[in-house]
Design a protein that fits this description.
Structural class: mainly beta
GO molecular function: siderophore uptake transmembrane transporter activity; signaling receptor activity
Number of strands: 39
Largest sheet: 22 strands, antiparallel, barrel
Number of domains: 1
Radius of gyration: 26 Å
Family: Belongs to the TonB-dependent receptor family.
InterPro entries: Beta-barrel_TonB (IPR000531), Beta-barrel_TonB_sf (IPR036942), PirA/FepA/PfeA (IPR058134), Plug_dom (IPR012910), Plug_dom_sf (IPR037066), TonB-dep_rcpt-like (IPR039426), TonB_rcpt_CS (IPR010917), TonB_sidphr_rcpt (IPR010105)
Helix content: under 10%
Protein name: TonB-dependent siderophore receptor
Oligomer: single chain
Strand content: over 45%
CATH superfamily: TonB-dependent receptor, beta-barrel domain
Keywords: Cell outer membrane, Ion transport, Iron, Iron transport, Membrane, Receptor, Signal, TonB box, Transmembrane, Transmembrane beta strand, Transport
Length: about 750
C-alpha cells in the first residue's frame, strides 16, 4: 500500500504524522479524523509518493488496538489503566501462573502469554519497576504491575500491540506491548483539571478519589513545555469482605489492596530548527499500598490481621525517570529518533517470610528492607524511503541498549548460597540491532519483513525474525497475517545464584511412592538458563465500510523454555552442606513446550447518523482455544474461556453523550495437578468459576467549552464475586469482582 499526499518538496514530520493518522484510521476511524484534519492544514502543492514506516504499517495488523483520550473520558478508570485496557480484544487480567497466588493483584495478560510477557512502555521507553519485586517460586510477584505510572488525564492514547507486531520490541514482548503515549506541548497556553470520585454501594468495597492537572504551552518562539501532576487514593476492601465465601472458623482471604498514588512529570521541547527537535523529560511517582491482609497461603497471624484492620502501608515504590530525545527530519521522508533514558525504582517493603509455612507472612511490621533497581536505556531509529525497480519501500534501521542493576539485600539476607557469596546485586545488559522494510509490492499487497538481533551479556545472542503482510482484496476487505520469533531473557532473580527460595520441608516435592522428599529444600537462581522462546503466528480478515467494521483473527503461539521453579519437575538433588546445614539445592529451570491458540474478533455496527456518528454498537471478543503446558496439560494461567466486550455509544446532542457497556466472561478452570510438588489436585481445588457478565451505564454533559461532567454506574446489576482462598485451594475463585459503584468525573479546561 502506498500513501499519496499533496506535499512540499521537503517532507516534514507532520506529513509523516498524517501518514500515521491515515493508517490508524483503518482500524479506529473516530481517532484519526481530528488528527488528520489538523495535519492536512499544512499541506501545500507538489506530489510525493510515500510508503508508511514499518511501525505505522504494523499498527494496522490484526492484533492492534488504539485507546484514545476520548475513550478514556467515556470510560474513566478508577485508578489503574489496566481496568480500561482489559476491554480490548486479546486482553485479560491474570496472574503469571495458575497458582492463584496474589489473585487480586492481576496484571495485563495479552493472548494468554502472562503478565511477565507483556511489555509496558511510556512514550516508547520500557517500564521495569515491577522487576524490583521479588519473584516467588510459582512465578508470581506481589506487585501491581507497571500500568499505573501515568494518570488517565495525561494520556493522549494507548497503543495495544499483540502477536507478531510486537517482535520488534525485543525481550519481554512475547505476548505484546502496551505503549502509553502522553500528551505533548501545545501551541497556545492550555490547561485542565480533572476530579474523579468512585463510591461503592456497599461500603465493604473500595472507593477512589483522584485529582489531576495538566498545563502546556509555549515559553518562547522555540521552547514549549508540558507539565502534569496527580494525586489519587483507592481504599482497600474491608478485611473480612470474603468471609461470606469461607466457613466461620477460617480467616477469610484478602480482598483488593488499596493504593495511594502521587505523580509529577515535566517535558521541555526545544525546536532547534524546523528539522531538529530536542525533548527533555523528567518525572517522579510514588505508589504505596493500603494493606488488606494479602498473604501467599491460607491463614494469617495476629500481626497481619492487625495491619489489615489498620490499613497500614506495607510496601512503597518510588520511581524517578529522566530522558532526552532528539527527532530529526532530513527531507523526502527521511527521519530519525534517538532516546536516552534513566529509570530508578526504590521498592521498600515490610519483610515477609521466605521459608516453609511462613512464606509470605509478616511477623514484625517495623522490619523493612529496600530493593533498588536502575535501568539505563538507549534506542534510535532511522527511516528512509527506498525505491528498487517499481517497488516503493520504507526502510527502518534501529539500535537499542538496555542495562539493569538490581540490589535486593533481603533476598539473600540469610547468607546461604551455593558459593557462600552474599552479594545481593544482579546485573544484566542487552544490545540490539534491527531492520524493517515496509514494501509496497503492488497497490494491494504490502510486505513487512523484519529482523532483530539481541545480545545478552549472560545468555548470548538471539535472532528475532518477523514477517507481516497485508493484502487488500477490495476497497473494503483486507487479509492480514504475520509470524515472528520472540524471546524473553531470564529476569534478575531467576538468573542470580545468590537469590534463593527456601522451604523447611513442607514445600518439598513428593516421590512417586507418595512420600515427601526430606528437606530443607532450596531453589537458587540459575546462570545456565536459556531464554524463553515463542513463535507467534496470526492470520486475519477485516472489513470496513461506512462505519461498519468486522474482523476475525486466529492466533497461535508455540512457547518453549518457560522458566519455572517447580521442584516436582526436577531430579531430586543430593544434600549439600551450607552454613552447617544439609539442604537440597534445586534451581530455576527451563520446562518443556506450551501451546496457546485462540480467536479475536470485532463487529462494529453504525445505527444512526453518518457512519454511526449518532449511535453505534461496538463489539469485540476473545476466545481461547487452548492454553496449556504440553507436558503436564496444565493451564499457563487462570483465564476465561471467552471474553466479549460490547458498548452502545449514543451522541444524543452536541452536549450530551450516553454509553452503555457489557462485558461477558466465560468459565475459568483451575489446574488439576500441582507441578511444584508433583501431586494431583482433588476436591474443592478443582472448582470452576462460572461465566458471568458485568454491565455499566454512564452519561456525559458538555456544560460549556471549558467544563465537562460525566457520571455513571459500574456493575449496574451488582454482580459480586468473592475470593475463596489465598491460593487455588478453592479452584478458580482466586479474585474479587466488586459490586455496584457510582462515579463522577469533572473536567475543567482553560
Amino acid at each position: 500500500m502506498t500513501m499519496r499526499f499533496l506535499a512540499s518538496p521537503v517532507f516534514r514530520p507532520h506529513r509523516l504524522a498524517l501518514a500515521a493518522c491515515v493508517a490508524v484510521s483503518a482500524i479506529y476511524p473516530q481517532w484519526s479524523a481530528a488528527q488528520a484534519s489538523q495535519a492536512e492544514d499544512d499541506v501545500t502543492l507538489g506530489e510525493v509518493t510515500v510508503t508508511a514506516t514499518a511501525e505505522d504499517q504494523l499498527k494496522q495488523a490484526p492484533g492492534v488496538s488504539i485507546i484514545t483520550a476520548e475513550d478514556i473520558d467515556e470510560r474513566p478508570p478508577a485508578n489503574d489503566l489496566s481496568e480500561l485496557i482489559r476491554t480490548m480484544p486479546g486482553v485479560n487480567l491474570t496472574g503469571n501462573s495458575s497458582s492463584g497466588a496474589y489473585g487480586n493483584n492481576r496484571q495485563i495478560d495479552l493472548r494468554g502469554m502472562g503478565p511477565e510477557n507483556t511489555m509496558i512502555l511510556i512514550d516508547g521507553v520500557p517500564v521495569n519497576s515491577r522487576n524490583s519485586v521479588r519473584m516467588g517460586r510459582n512465578g508470581e510477584r506481589n506487585a501491581r504491575g507497571d500500568s499505573n505510572w501515568v494518570p488517565a488525564s495525561a494520556i493522549e492514547r494507548i497503543e495495544v500491540l499483540r502477536g507478531p507486531a510486537a517482535a520488534r520490541y525485543g525481550s519481554g514482548a512475547a505476548g505484546g506491548v502496551i505503549n502509553i503515549i502522553t500528551k505533548k506541548p501545545t501551541k497556545a497556553l492550555e490547561g485542565s483539571v480533572t476530579a474523579y470520585t468512585l463510591v461503592p454501594q456497599d461500603g465493604d468495597f473500595s472507593s477512589t478519589r483522584r485529582l489531576g492537572a495538566n498545563l502546556s504551552g509555549p515559553i518562547s518562539e522555540n521552547l514549549s513545555f508540558r507539565l502534569y501532576a496527580s494525586a489519587a487514593k483507592t481504599d482497600a476492601d474491608a478485611p473480612d469482605i470474603n468471609a461470606v465465601a469461607v466457613d466461620e472458623d477460617s480467616t477469610p482471604p484478602a480482598g483488593r489492596e488499596g493504593v495511594r498514588n502521587r505523580d509529577i512529570n515535566g517535558l521541555l521541547r526545544w525546536d532547534l530548527t524546523r528539522e531538529h527537535v530536542l525533548e527533555f523529560n523528567a518525572g517522579f511517582s510514588r505508589q504505596g499500598n493500603i494493606y488488606a491482609g494479602e498473604r501467599l497461603f491460607d491463614g494469617s497471624n495476629a500481626v497481619m490481621q492487625e495491619l489489615a484492620n489498620a490499613g497500614i502501608e506495607t510496601n512503597r515504590m518510588l520511581r524517578n525517570t529522566a530522558s532526552v530525545t532528539h527527532r530529526g527530519d532530513y527531507g523526502e521522508g527521511r527521519t530519525s529518533r534517538v532516546t536516552l533514558s534513566f529509570e530508578q525504582t526504590r521498592n521498600t517493603r515490610v519483610n515477609e517470610g521466605l521459608a516453609g509455612g511462613g512464606e509470605g507472612s509478616i511477623t514484625n511490621p517495623d522490619n523493612r528492607s529496600t530493593s533498588k533497581l536502575k535501568q539505563y536505556f538507549a534506542s534510535g531509529e532511522y527511516h528512509t524511503p527506498v525505491k528498487l525497480g517499481q517497488i516503493d519501500q520504507m526502510v527502518t534501521l534501529g539500535f537499542e541498549y538496555r542495562s539493569e542493576n538490581l540490589n535486593d539485600p533481603y533476598a539473600t539476607a540469610r547468607g546461604q548460597t551455593l558459593n557462600n557469596n552474599t552479594n545481593a546485586t544482579s546485573k544484566s545488559s542487552t544490545k540490539a540491532l534491527f531492520i524493517e522494510d515496509n514494501m509496497a509490492l503492488t497497490d494491494a499487497l504490502v510486505l513487512t519483513p523484519g529482523l532483530r538481533f539481541d545480545h545478552h551479556d549472560k545468555f548470548g545472542g538471539n535472532w528475532s525474525p518477523s514477517l507481516n503482510a497485508s493484502y487488500d482484496v477490495s476497497q473494503t476487505v483486507t487479509l492480514k497475517g504475520g509470524i515472528a520469533r520472540v524471546f524473553k531473557a531470564p529476569n534478575l532473580f531467576q538468573s542470580n545464584p545468590n537469590y534463593l527460595y527456601t522451604t523447611g520441608g513442607n514445600g518439598c516435592p513428593y516421590l512417586p511412592d507418595g512420600t515427601r522428599v526430606q528437606g530443607p529444600c532450596y531453589i537458587f537462581g540459575n546462570e545456565e538458563l536459556d531464554p524463553e522462546i515463542s513463535v507467534n503466528k496470526e492470520l486475519g480478515v477485516a472489513f470496513n465500510k461506512d462505519g461498519w467494521g468486522a474482523g476475525l483473527t486466529y492466533f497461535h503461539n508455540d512457547y518453549k523454555n518457560k522458566i519455572i521453579a517447580d521442584m516436582g519437575d526436577q531430579d531430586i538433588p543430593e544434600f549439600i552442606n551450607i552454613g552447617g546445614s544439609n539442604v537440597r539445592p534445586f534451581e530455576w529451570v527451563n520446562t518443556g513446550a506450551a501451546i496457546i491458540r485462540g480467536l479475536e474478533g470485532n463487529l462494529n455496527i453504525p445505527l444512526l447518523g453518518q457512519a454511526g456518528e449518532t449511535l453505534k454498537l461496538n463489539n469485540n471478543f476473545t476466545y481461547m482455544l487452548e492454553s496449556k503446558n504440553k507436558n503436564t496439560g496444565q493451564p499457563l494461567s487462570v483465564i476465561p474461556k471467552y471474553t466479549i466486550n460490547s458498548s452502545l455509544d449514543w451522541k444524543a446532542t452536541d452536549q450530551i453523550s450516553v454509553l452503555a457497556t457489557g462485558t461477558f466472561y466465560g468459565r475459568q478452570k483451575p489446574r488439576n495437578y500441582n507441578p511444584a510438588n508433583a501431586t494431583a489436585i482433588t476436591g474443592d481445588a478443582l472448582n470452576i468459576r462460572g461465566s458471568y457478565a458485568i454491565y455499566g451505564l454512564s452519561a456525559g454533559y458538555q456544560l460549556s467549552k471549558a467544563f465537562h461532567v460525566r457520571a455513571g454506574v459500574n456493575n449496574l446489576f451488582d454482580k459480586r464475586l468473592y475470593r475463596e482462598s489465598s491460593g487455588s485451594s478453592q479452584g478458580a475463585a482466586t479474585y474479587n469482582e466488586p459490586g455496584r459503584t457510582y462515579f463522577l468525573t469533572l473536567v475543567g479546561n482553560f
